Amino acid sequence: MGTVILLALTGLGLAALYFLVASGLSLVFGLADVLNFAHGLFLGVGAYGTWWAAGNLPGAGSDGFGFVFAVAFGVAAGTLVAILVELVLIRPLYSRTIEQVLVTVGLSLAGVALLQATWGADARPFPRPDWTRQVTGILGAQVPNGGLLLIIAAVLVLGAILAFLRWTRYGLVIRAGVENREMVTALGIDVRKAFTLVFAIGGAAAALAGALGGVYFGTVSPGQGGSLLIFAFIVVVIGGMGSVVGSAYAAVVVGLVQQFVNYYGTSGLGDICVVGLLAVVLLLRPQGIAGKVATA
Amino acid sequence: MTVIDAPPAQVPDELTPQRGRWHRVRPFLPLVALVVLAILPYSTMSLPGIFEGPVNSPGTLQLLAICLIFGGLAAGYDLLFGRTGMLSFGHALYFAAGVYGTDILITRAGLPLWQAALLTITGGTILAALLGAVALRTVGIAFAMVTLAFAQVGAILVARDFGGLTGGEEGLPLDVSGLPAGLVGVTNTVNLYWLALAYLTLVVFVVHRVSGSPTGRVLAGLRDDERRIGVLGLDPYRYKLVAFTLAGGLASAGGVVYVLIVGGASPHITSSELTLSLLVMVVLGGPGTRWGPVLGGVLYMYLDHRLTAFGTSDAVDSLPAVLSHPLSQPLFVLGTVFILAVYFFPGGLTSLAPRIAHLTRSLRPRPPR
């Protein structure tokens, strides 16, 4: 029983990480039709921003309030980069989907290389509060606190995004834009402002994933974003593009499948099962669990 | 589906090259280039700054061979991206299938080279047909993601080393004892170079023939307007599957030659980064053109190798750290160039020639009236 609960909770931790990356991807894709390969870069900026702040910024540290401050700095850095990317690189190519993908591909190559040039290719130990290294006993399972922190953060982010989409004017514009962008434009609303906003939200969530993922894994390296990004893509497709709730469901399914199969089957089999799941979902329900039909 | 500035059917008058002295020679230029490349290993010319050592030194020849292979791979990938408008993010899988297939069949199963090569290319083609049959049920961005996910399975299979076949993170060195003597050893690098050249010629020939055939016109039609092809009574799915399978087969053939040149397989060739660099090569060179992807591939691999040396050179080291660190990363330079190319040269390298010709013509002083 203990093993099952441990696997379920660590699987949910993984799911939380996927959700934080995928929610932004899904919104950006749903609204602006941009398949954002540079999303892994935002994650890397968040992780390295937190790491740098904890070591160099006065008032920030690896413990207590200083750590919160460091994470806030990392998230702010990630958000800023996301906004800059949207304004400078994506906006001029508005409605030219393939070119936007190409630019984000180039950005992901160059950005990761830049991180590597600045801080080296090797993984760096991540500053984390002592209590995240310990475990909590839940129903007989010893669950690492880093994973629990991720789950709590993901639930809070999910709640915040849903509340924002549900009860604010900009949330309304974004929801309407995902549904039918031409109509929103025809009503005289500047959808591009919503694009920037969605990029900022996605960048912030990804940067938070980078910072908390650093806590979870204990290290930070330039390539971390890239490997997470592929599973985040899978989560987005399974969940349905443009649907935050769909991403949350899909993230939970993917995280749990991966964790359980990797434990009870051979290591690595879980990852393959996830891709199999993707193929099945696409063949039976191409629009994902809760999304609009994914077409070009 | 939208694709970067598809080459227009009719070239505007002011852009058509004027009939100069060379217009009779133009059709034979590829042949001349092929002959020059074929006799290049006999030259002992030394090009300081471009290559380390003379042209016929094994190191230079190996670099050239790898460049030629990637030129061919990019041309094969262009069959999907530039000519049919399919954005596949999983092309590395079929290349890796060629590399690892040959390596495993020779090293682990002890087959002779020709059998291993034949089996691998057949297997790679069948793999492409099967996976393409599933992936092509989706279109556009979803297709890109599905191919990416399939390629990721390949990367995981190789990295986790199921059954101890692939050697995992360490890679799998090629067992050369059973190979023909002419393909083994540093002194025989020149034969591998010719093999790479033959591969490139084959790919260019096949892609050229396919794109000139009726099937090729349907593919171009699919790129421009898939619905219209459907209305004409042709099945887009079948044609796309043919292109996908053919490109997969060509990529696995490239893998067979690559494993001979490099002398082993390493897991980084299975990564999605390889597909991304193929995409970069095609876009830099000029998608949908005959020589653009080849040029792009050759140039990209060359720069990727040479920029590493350039990054550690004295000229770069003497720069302040803010500049020298990013410049020592080939991918940073290439990624930046790529982004600039998407903005400012949408047709890639091959679009530069007519642009420059246009520029010089408008700058040339008008004859006095």
Please give a handful of descriptors for the protein shown.
heterodimer; A: 296 residues; mainly alpha; two-stranded antiparallel ribbon; 11 helices; B: 369 residues; two-stranded antiparallel sheet; 15 helices; 2 strands; 65% helix
Q: Care to describe what's here?
A:
The complex is a heterodimer of chains A (296) and B (369). Chain A is mostly helical and 296 residues long. Chain A is 74% helix and 4% strand. In chain A, the strands form two sheets. In chain A, strands 1-4 form a two-stranded antiparallel sheet. In chain A, strands 2-3 form a two-stranded antiparallel sheet. Chain B is mainly α and 369 residues long. In chain B, helix 2 (58-84) runs parallel beside helix 6 (189-212) and helix 3 (91-107) runs antiparallel to helix 4 (113-135). The longest helix of chain B is centred in the first third of the chain and has 27 residues, at 58-84. Chain B is globular, with a radius of gyration of 22 Å. The mean pLDDT of chain B is 82. Chains A and B meet through helix 4, helix 9 and helix 11 of A and helix 5, helix 10 and helix 14 of B.
Helix and strand topology:
The complex is a heterodimer of chains A (296) and B (369).
Chain A: H1 2-32, H2 39-56, H3 64-90, H4 97-119, E1 124-125, E2 135-138, E3 141-144, H5 145-167, H6 169-179, H7 181-186, H8 191-217, E4 219-220, H9 224-239, H10 244-264, H11 269-284
Antiparallel strand pairs in A: 1-4, 2-3
Helix pairs in contact in A: 1-5, 1-6, 1-8, 1-9, 1-10, 2-3, 2-4, 2-8, 2-9, 3-8, 5-6, 5-8, 6-8, 9-10, 9-11, 10-11
Chain B: H1 29-39, H2 58-84, H3 91-107, H4 113-135, H5 140-160, E1 172-173, H6 189-212, H7 214-224, H8 226-231, H9 236-262, E2 264-265, H10 272-285, H11 292-311, H12 314-317, H13 321-327, H14 330-344, H15 352-363
Antiparallel strand pairs in B: 1-2
Helix pairs in contact in B: 2-6, 2-9, 2-10, 2-11, 3-4, 3-5, 3-9, 4-9, 6-7, 6-9, 7-9, 10-11, 11-14
